[in-house]
Write a structure and sequence with these properties.
transmembrane, mainly alpha, CBS-domain, 29 helices, 3-stranded mixed beta sheet, Clc chloride channel, transmembrane helix
């Protein structure tokens, strides 16, 4: 049984090597007492386990009547027991229901207990929406700060600064209130020296923001780096990572997310917003006892918080619920679906009330395309899906290879230097090209845009023939010099984004992947859209255009191609399908373009799956060795439980505890000499008939507490797990009854059970371990880690890559 305990003879946090964990390539110390939930604090005086003791009162303790603080809780980097947690919650609910008939106060308590889940969702939605609005506004202002400052008020971004200006529509970005750094320092904005100064200031601000972000992450909250979604998937599957969703992580992630996005690095804020929302959910859980004391109930809340995070990230509440269901959640009952929907609704409403974009909409990418798509356009849409799948597979392989190199070489020891170098390269390459200089969100918004009469963008510099204009619809026109300039600039931007994102994702700053992936797809889609538009304009008599695209008609919408390309690339990287399509049409308001989006998303998934089965988040889970049992993969090998269980043929026998013949000293010796997180209890060593299973942590706490509070408990005291004490001589010391901490119904399988069934049991019930018997006798044990190692071996991977319990 290879479940390692992470506290050898103490469950007090220490700074030994055993408290060090490698997350995404850096060694981090997790002895952060502030972020430990109250469960651990309630353990009071159980500071160390050294086998010593002190006598207390002489009352015989029955732990069934007096539950001990800390019993039933879990150590860091352990997996929760879903079955036990759900059983405890059912018992708690039954007790409250039965008491509600006794008095009015008990009835009020019962009603408040039922309502507490909805109140918690309301609080999560309000907090997540408020933080998202704050992040959006701050990031917009600090992004513009790299290029200049507003004289009317330094806290205004470029757009808000020019709202009250009297400039014409075409010069709306050149209002006198907004000054570039060269205008502010030199007094003029023209000429080579002014350009060099603006260039220099852009790079300096970018480096300042990114260095501040990485230093804050490194100094205060190492868990605030990355997107957080791989770790949240692992936590929702039942793994415990103390501090990952704590208050310090929330504060630092919120601040550094603004800094990282503002620095101009090729990353987005959408993935980290899911982490931020889950931090809000975890912290607010501590206000409610039923969520604070039950890890399974807390994970239901975190599933709903993840939905709220996507809701505010994209302004897509329904897409957020589907994202939580499809991508991150492990256990998602119908009740959680309703609560996720409510949390996403409140979060979206809060964000809409704050109105961070100043356009009275939830999203930055709202589009209004005037022309419907034609059936023949499905061909280029599917081509974009193929491109998205190829790029997704290429990105995942390249990024994982780079992250593995970071973990296994000296590169991982210099996170600040890495961020400095990548930011410097990004800023130096980005400034000369206006499409990489602007924020990625603004770039996507411009690429999605359908050119109108008043658009002054270079992407809309067509040769106008206003005689053929009908209402708002502009016909397909010949591309002007501005469009051709924009095309090659976009082609350069595409190359830069494709490669720089590989090195950016996984650095020690908060970094999301949704927006960079969408940017790559949107650029590719816009390029293809303009090419199709010009093809239709010059060759409208070709057979493929003749039936539906006559001369002077508005046939092709390049912005739609950008939208489909963005969905294809995001699908290729994350392997989302249903939630992706819903997020995209909520994000853009393009409800009638669901079929193109579905075609592109499905094609990109098929193509990417043909090259590699894992999405980016699953790949990072495997890279970091998290104990995550993927529910989507089929187990098709013909192995049996006896092939996987421990002990193996040449291993020492299984460590067991007998039900009524071992002393306190015997049990303490087993605890000190082994590092397993639990022990089977048998009738006797000779019979090996199984009685139950007891957790190491519960044993330590119960023995320590008995030594302090129960008179006569010494090293020679017999421990028994039966209902009645065994017959002993009158001179024997007091006995210790520990039946209440014994799991009398551990999951068992026979040695001939196919592993296909065992894996299914672990996935669907969320087990930590399963005992193996033969004719009722205990043979061995299979832990979740054993299952993961077995799957890795069968896939020709390194089984030791599974780092944790």
């Amino acid at each position: 049984m290879d479940q390692k305990g992470y506290r050898r003879e103490s469950f007090q946090s220490s700074t030994s090597d055993e408290d060090m964990l490698e997350i995404a390539g850096a060694s981090l110390d997790f002895s952060m007492a502030e972020d430990d939930p109250p469960l651990d604090r309630e353990m009071g005086g159980f500071s160390s386990y050294n086998g010593g003791g002190m006598n207390g009162t002489s009352t015989m303790m029955d732990f069934l009547e007096e539950p001990l603080p800390g019993v039933g809780t879990y150590e860091d980097f352990n997996t929760i027991d879903w079955v036990r947690e759900k059983s405890r919650d059912r018992d708690r609910h039954r007790e409250i229901t039965s008491r509600s008939k006794e008095s009015t106060w008990a009835l009020i308590h019962s009603v408040s207990d039922a309502f507490s889940g909805w109140l918690l969702m309301l609080l999560i939605g309000l907090l997540a929406g408020s933080l998202a609005g704050l992040i959006d506004i701050s990031a917009h202002w600090m992004t513009d700060l790299k290029e200049g400052v507003c004289l009317a008020g330094f806290w205004f971004n470029h757009e808000h600064c020019c709202w009250k200006s009297n400039t014409t529509f075409t010069d709306r970005d050149k209002c006198p209130e907004w000054k570039s750094w060269s205008q502010l320092i030199l007094g003029h904005g023209e000429g080579a020296f002014a350009y060099i100064l603006n260039y220099f200031m852009y790079v300096v601000w970018a480096l300042l923001f990114s260095l501040l972000a990485v230093l804050l992450v490194k100094g205060f909250a190492p868990y605030a780096c990355g997107s957080g979604i791989p770790e949240i998937k692992t936590i929702l599957s039942g793994f415990i990572i103390r501090g990952y969703l704590g208050k310090w992580t929330l504060i630092i992630k919120t601040i550094t997310l603004v800094l990282a996005v503002s620095s101009g690095l090729s990353l987005g804020k959408e993935g980290p917003l899911v982490h931020v929302a889950c931090c809000c959910g975890n912290i607010l859980c501590h206000l409610f006892t039923k969520y604070r004391k039950n890890e399974a109930k807390r994970r239901e809340v975190l599933s709903a918080a993840a939905a709220a995070g996507v809701s505010v990230a994209f302004g897509a509440p329904i897409g957020g619920v589907l994202f939580s269901l499809e991508e991150v959640s492990y256990y998602f009952p119908l009740k959680t679906l309703w609560r996720s929907f409510f949390a996403a609704l409140v979060a979206a409403f809060t964000l809409r009330s704050i109105n961070p974009f100043g356009n009275s909409r939830l999203v930055l990418f709202y589009v209004e395309f005037h022309m419907p798509w034609h059936l023949l356009e499905l061909v280029p849409f599917i081509l974009l899906g193929i491109f998205g799948g190829l790029w997704g597979a290429f990105f995942i392989r390249s990024n994982i290879a780079w992250c593995r190199r970071r973990k296994t070489t000296k590169l991982g020891k210099y996170p600040v230097l890495e961020v400095f170098v990548v930011t410097a390269i990004t800023a130096v390459l980005a400034f000369p090209n206006e499409y990489t200089r602007m924020s990625t969100s603004e770039l996507i918004s411009e690429l999605f845009n359908d050119c109108g009469i008043l658009d002054s963008s270079k992407l809309c510099e067509y040769v106008n023939d206003f005689n053929s204009t009908k209402g708002d619809d502009l016909p397909d026109r010949a591309a002007g010099p501005g469009v051709y300039t924009a095309m090659w600039q976009l082609a350069l931007a595409l190359i830069m984004k494709v490669f720089i994102t590989i090195f950016t994702f996984g650095m020690k700053v908060p970094s999301g992947l949704f927006i960079p992936s969408m940017a790559v797809g949107a650029i590719a889609g816009r390029l293809l859209g303009v090419a199709m538009e010009q093809l239709a304009y010059y060759h409208h008599d070709w057979a493929i255009f003749s039936g539906w695209c006559s001369q002077g008609a508005d046939c092709i919408t390049p912005g739609l191609y950008a939208m489909v390309g963005a969905a294809a690339c995001l699908g290729g990287v994350t392997r989302m399908t249903v939630s992706l399509v819903v997020i995209m049409f909520e994000l853009t308001g393009g409800l009638e373009y669901i079929v193109p989006l579905m075609a592109a998303a499905m094609t990109s998934k098929w193509v990417a799956d043909a090259i590699g089965r894992e999405g980016i988040y699953d790949a990072h889970i495997r890279l970091n060795g998290y104990p995550f049992l993927e529910a989507k993969e089929e187990f098709s090998h013909k192995t049996l439980a006896m092939d996987v269980m421990r002990p193996r043929r040449n291993d020492p026998p299984l460590t067991v505890i007998t039900q009524d013949s071992m002393t306190v000293e015997d049990v303490e010796t087993i605890i000190n000499e082994t590092t397993y997180s639990g022990y089977p209890v048998v009738v006797s060593r000779e019979s090996q008939r199984l009685v139950g299973f007891v957790l190491r942590r519960d044993l330590i706490i119960s023995i320590e507490n008995a030594r302090k509070k129960q008179d006569g408990i010494v090293s020679t005291s017999v421990i028994y797990f039966t209902d009645h004490s065994p017959p002993l001589p009158p001179s024997s010391p007091s006995m210790l009854k520990l039946r209440s901490i014994l799991d009398l119904s551990p999951f068992t399988v026979t040695d001939q059970t196919p592993m296909e069934i065992v894996v299914d049991i672990f996935r669907k019930l969320g087990l930590r371990q399963c005992l193996v018997t033969h004719n009722g006798k205990l043979l061995g044990i299979i832990t979740k880690k054993d299952v993961l190692k077995h799957i890795a071996q069968l896939a020709n991977q390194d089984p030791d890559s599974i780092l944790f319990n």
